[in-house]
Specification:
Blueprint lengths: L1 H22 L12 H4 L15 H11 L12 H4 L48 H4 L1 H5 L8 H9 L4 H9 L6 H13 L7 H6 L7 H11 L7 H4 L12 E2 L12 H5 L8 E2 L21 H10 L23 H12 L4 H5 L6
Length: 352
Amino acid sequence: MKNGFIYILLIISISACSKDEIEVYEPTPMPLSIPQIFSQNIIPPVIPNNNPQTVQGVALGKKLFFDKKLSGNETMACASCHSPQHAFTDSTPTSVGIDGTFGSRNSMPLFNLAWNYGERFTWDGKELSIERQALEPVQNPIEMHSDWDDVVNKLQSDPEYPELFRLAFKTTIITKELTTKAIAQFERTLISANSKFDRYSLGQATLTPQEENGLNVFLDETRGDCFHCHGNPNNPLWTDNIFHNNGLDSNFTDLGLGGVTGDTNDNGKFKSPSLRNLAYTAPYMHDGRFNTIDEVIEFYSTGLQTSSTVDPLMKKVAQGGVNLTTQDKADLKAFLLTLSDPSFLTNPDFQE
């Protein structure tokens, strides 16, 4: 009798230990790998306290990012408009949804998002976190045209996803909030910091005379005057992450930030995109109106339009632009191309 009682206690103890082991499971932390060029020049990345980076969360987010189950007819994934081969954008002026309808905006490339200190995302800044930004495309009728309840049901009934969510978030109950948290974790790992200019800044490469003059044009307030909105060698993000009316139009069919804030002083203002990876992200501007880097440079040189909200930084708008010489245009383009990072396109961590 006594031995039997001890045996029962032993079984209960073992069961309790097993239960405790399940309860104390934690996903494996996965801090972002901060590139040297970033750690030298800018503050640490922004990671929400309620969505820390983990190995399991990133793996789940990557699977979701490439999964067409998130669209209404299962023909489109996040990666359809944000392709690794195009630095996580696509190659069309405006992106097309599952129903064949084109939107009004160019698909923004995705990289270095964890350093977006303004915490406003998309061209018009309507989303205040990466997690919230990931909600919109799924339910937008001209994008993935799905319903989050349907998406959650599909994921919940999938043979793999409940366990993957348990590993990432310690629950098999799938929600849209956990889904977008996982996608955001993956997107924060999309770090681009291995361009020729990055290596030059670290003393590992040299610029050609043409590229050097292009940098000088970029930084010269009397010539290119590009650095106010797009940074300088001390800001390797190559954007200020602020919203500007850069003189694209005198009248606005798309209000940009003004459509979000309701403030007419914000009309025609759009987020300054990073100049990284320009070699892969054509076409350019919020509506993809320019097909080439040459067209963009020509716009800033001779095509500026005045309006009531044009940014004061566009100091030569009355003259139509900065009026670069042919040589300075070519040199500026040569410099801009040094900001592209071919290794970003082929990083196996970012491929399906």
